Amino acid sequence: MSASNGSISSPYSAALFSGLWRENPTFRLLIGMCPPLAVTTAVKPALTMGLSVIFVLVCSNLVVSLMRNLLRPHLRIIMFTVTIATFVTICDLFLKAYTPEMSEILGAYVPLIIVNCIIIFRAEACASKSGPLVSILDGIGMGAGFTIALCILAGVREILATGHLFDIQVMPRAFVPWLALQMPVGAFVTLGLILGLINVLTARKEA
Amino acid sequence: MLSNKLKYFLQQSWLLLVSSFFFGLLIAVTNAALSDRIEQNRIAKLNVLTKSLLPAAERFQPVEAEIEVQLPDGSKEKATIFEALSADGHRVGWSFNAHGTGFAGPVELVVAVDADFRKIMGFSVLASSETPGFGDQIKGDYYRNQFINAPAVRLTLAKSGDPTAIDAQIVAITGATVTSQAVVDILNRFVTQIKDQIQKKGLISNVGK
After folding, report:
1. Domain end (from B53, B77, B94)
2. Which of A121, B127, B135, B196 is 20 to 30 A away from residue B11, measured at CA?
3. Chain A residues lying within 8 Å of B46, measured CB to CB
4. Is this prediction's ipTM beyond 0.90?
5. Antiparallel, parallel or unpaired: β A164-165 and B68-70
6. Which pLDDT tens digit goes with each residue over B107-122?
């Protein structure tokens, strides 16, 4: 592991890049698993969800980082939750105003970002201990890692379940869509296979 | 003693109190800035859906008359009804929102009827959380087409029959009887009650029997 991180020189680049692979929340830490299972039937809603999470994560990390010296240990969780809920509500309003059809597809999953543990995990593990710049970079890195994971899952499922990607036909006409991949079972199977593949790859690298 | 407790409380929670106030303010400002746009989106969606049911309609005028619908729990609710007008101001139909409980949660519909309230022109689903592949087929043509041109009277649900026949009998979706029944119930409740009151208030000059 340490060999691949030899090039990371400053805490800033470490904050930015660790979420992409080494500590990827979806594929490596397996936290916040509700959106990867629920909103990955197509790439567009997955991308919208990912961008929403990046926005909330960056804003909440910044605010938590700015008030980190004022936090009382026994009241910190409620402070995190209030902060996160505020930005999620704002994000939800923006989606409803500017992309009503995406807001409809995502439905309850946008308000549910409030209880997504990636965000509270980063508030606890990073933002409440680090300065604003590191916290923002960490939010971008973790959010991007989450978004990429969501898009990979959604891409596989959308192509195999509908033959389309971003609503454009990509598979040959003779392709028979695998409808099961659009159902919840498709999310579990795809996620399991991708996790298995990643484990095989990293095991080989470490060996 | 009391002041000591209060002091302790404020010492511990001032950050939460202050930040709650500012966060609330932030949400209020965002909401004030965007609520018009959100409302417009909702109306635009309703108009697009209703227009697909009443192609001749050019604009929709809200009906001012107090028309109430009794819900299954006994409560009454003011119905949202629109008069659909063609480009030259002719009435081409009525549309109204209807809602009820489906299999997995609330089902919201927009229903259109013809100008004399004799025929149902169809319905569209505004919101529902019915099971994909089963209950959500109420959005599909097989089920919805059965309502187009059906008489605006009490409808019944049948397990089998001819889905293409234009009559008051609706053939259920296989595997989704509860949802099929829910939609029929919602339509029965809203169509019959609204029709009665519109006729009583004399909003339709030519009352169809």
Report:
1. B53
2. A121
3. none
4. no
5. unpaired
6. 999 999 988 888 999 9
